[in-house]
Amino acid sequence: MPGPLSLPTFCHFLLLWAFAIFHKALGDTAPHPGPHYLLPPIHEVIHSRRGATATLPCVLGAPPPSYKVRWSKVEPGELRETLILITNGLQARGYGPLGGRARMRRGHRLDASLVIEGVRLEDEGRYRCELINGIEDESVALTLRLEGVVFPYQPSRGRYQFNYYEAKQACEEQDGRLATDAQLYQAWTEGLDWCNAGWLLEGSVRYPVLTARAPCGGPGRPGIRSYGPRDRKRDRYDAFCFTSMTAGHVFFVPGRLTLSEAHAACRRRGATVAKVGHLYAAWKFSGLDQCDGGWLADGSVRFPITSPRPRCGGLPDPGVRSFGFPRAQQAAFGTYCYSE
User: Which of 3.10.120.10, 3.10.100.10, 3.30.70.3040, 3.40.630.30 would CATH assign to domain 147-241?
Assistant: First the structure.
């Protein structure tokens, strides 16, 4: 007849029973079999800025006998992953445009963290660190989030002129890229209120409303109004662009200049006429406040306000004000220049 259970044996069975009950409460039929080699990240969202160096942590609790680590980026709206780097713990090989700027941190023998140098706007998104050991693969997901600003954009022809691909190109021409759903939502929480619908990176069309009103979707709760996914080639809307801190700086040149004279004025100062994204970044990150309309590279005239005041745009909130697209020959404005 077996003797009574020892205290260590009893504690072992009690631990297994509690673990099974915990998984059952979560809806799992049984605990996940086999060892878990990857440690869960302490922070799943990593914040960075354009031009900085970002580290995405991925650490092994214990190394399998043989393994590889595969880093990839989950592309929003495209249902695919882009391979970045593969390592066996000793050697690493980069792939694609991001692979040339990515490397392993190698802080210790269990460190599989990814380092991205010279962070770009398109680097924001979701990343996957996958451990491949031939028996039971596992992965952790992290999000790289850039500090930045979202701005609505339409061309000189007026509103609702862009299909998805034209909107994407327009943002890139203004030192930005199409904003994501998450970036638009954050911009709305920070005060963005805009009645015109615009393309987002995922292929959906939305617009943010802080004050519900008749010309802007009618009465209702404030929030992000959505048209849902649209036909990327046929449907036409504005664009919501996203930009981040720049390496250079923006400055104002006063005068009564035409657009061509504005270009010449910036060239004389070793600079170029600023793009719309440059101006928004200077307003957001450098606190640029100038109550004077100035030419920008796309032919629009705008000015940034961080401290709203009478006779300086007439609106109670900070922002970048716009005079639209005057005639290029109209000698009535200064210009904003950008220099690196």
Answer: 3.10.100.10
56 and 127 Cβ atoms separated by less than 8 Å: yes
Residues 248 and 338: beta-carbon distance below 8 Å: yes
Superfamily classification of domain 245-337: Mannose-Binding Protein A, subunit A (3.10.100.10)
Distance CA 303, CA 312 (A): 9
Same fold, 36-144 and 147-241: no
Question: Closest Cα partner for 123 from 215, 227, 201?
Answer: 201
CA 176 to each of CA 79, 183, 307, 314: distance values in angstroms, whole numbers, following the listed order: 23, 13, 25, 27
What's the token pair of residue 295?
């030419």
CA angle, 86 then 61 then 66, to 5°: 45
For 84, residues 6+ apart whose C-beta sits below 8 A from its C-beta are: 71, 72, 73, 94, 95, 96, 98, 99, 102, 114, 127
| Residuewise pLDDT in 10s, the chain (340 residues) | 444 445 444 444 444 444 333 333 333 433 444 447 899 999 999 999 999 999 999 999 988 888 899 999 998 766 688 999 999 878 889 998 888 999 999 889 899 999 999 999 999 999 999 999 876 789 999 999 999 999 999 999 999 999 999 999 999 999 999 999 999 999 999 999 999 999 999 999 999 999 888 888 778 889 999 999 999 999 999 999 999 999 999 999 999 999 999 999 999 999 999 999 999 999 999 999 999 999 999 999 999 999 999 888 888 899 999 999 999 999 999 999 999 9
Cα 309 from chain centre: 31
Class of domain 36-144: mainly beta
What are the structural domain ranges in the chain?
36-144, 147-241, 245-337
